[in-house]
User: Fold Tryptophan--tRNA ligase from Buchnera aphidicola.
Amino acid sequence: MLINSQPILFSAIQPSGKLTIGNYIGTMRHWSNMQNKYECLYCIADLHALTTINKKKKIKNEILDTLALYLACGVDPNKSIIFVQSQVYQHSQLNWILSCFSKFSELSRMIQFKVKRKQNSAENSNIGLFNYPILMASDILLYQTNFVPVGKDQKQHLELTCSIANRFNLLYGNVFTIPKPVISQNGSKIMSLLDPTKKMSKSDINKNNVIFLLEDVSSIFSKIKNSITDSDNPPKIYYNTNKKLGISNLLEILSAVTNKKINILEKELNGVLYSEFKNIVSDSISKFLIKLQKSYMIYRNDECFLKKIIQNGAIKARLKSQETLKKVYSAIGID
Ligand code: TYM
Assistant:
């Protein structure tokens, strides 16, 4: 049962493409424990995914894949509200209203938009990509959210969310709670394996840059073996994101999949060669993925159960979000 006096926590993932170990480490790995401290809402952001997916069957399957992964990571439908964004129409309604309180100039400054614009030509960029952070603000603000656990790449979107909420509150009183991002010190930006200066991303064309949560573990060894480290002589394994990008990235991954602190790992790995270090990392990732995938398969094979979770989650999320939407309508005088 949800206890209403707990602070509210909201997070979401787009069900586009296969989720990566970066998604897990940056956010999902914290979700299970958070259920004991907060009233949690975990959303599957399928409307956001429409900016890049347009195939009906693909998105339907990816929603179920994502949900089964949430459950495999320990999200419990009896403790948290798990729901699909498109099934709670309040998100789209608040999205329009908040668009009228957002500035073209501030959206144009969003780094993720600029990156995506570079990837697509101007003619092929849809307006959804531009509007994307406003829908994200709507997701968060509808639930009077206190905390939002995300990776570092979402920080700017959360800052924008706060600006929009503050602007609205200044005009109409305290309608929205101002949310705080929860970005962990380690693992909030897992980098690409072959280029540790850029973020590991599920949309990367080169799949050797990425470890997917559902990939066959037989490919892990070669991906890690080919990952970029450095040519320090003698080789030294320690955490320093200025001098040792590749090694620090592998240490962050190792720390997350083994649940060991980085300073403990540094001691254990003192004097170990890079080749041996990479074997340890591959082995630990593989063990972690095998366990996760086993649990995932059990949930994924029970579509009836998954669909029931989605139905129940939508009912609960609609009730909660309607309270805020009503307040917003009344504040602006369209109630
Ligand atoms: P998405 O689907 O791109 O990513 C989901 C979450 O994973 C984190 N993440 C990473 N963390 C560490 N290292 C990486 N390489 C890495 N790649 C991704 C992201 O920071 C994110 O936390 N717009 C969001 C989804 C969303 C949302 C929201 C999130 C929609 N509404 C409301 C929070 C609150 C997105 O596209 O995330």
Q: What stands out?
A: The first strand starts at residue 8 and ends at 13. Residues 303-332 form the longest helix (30 residues).
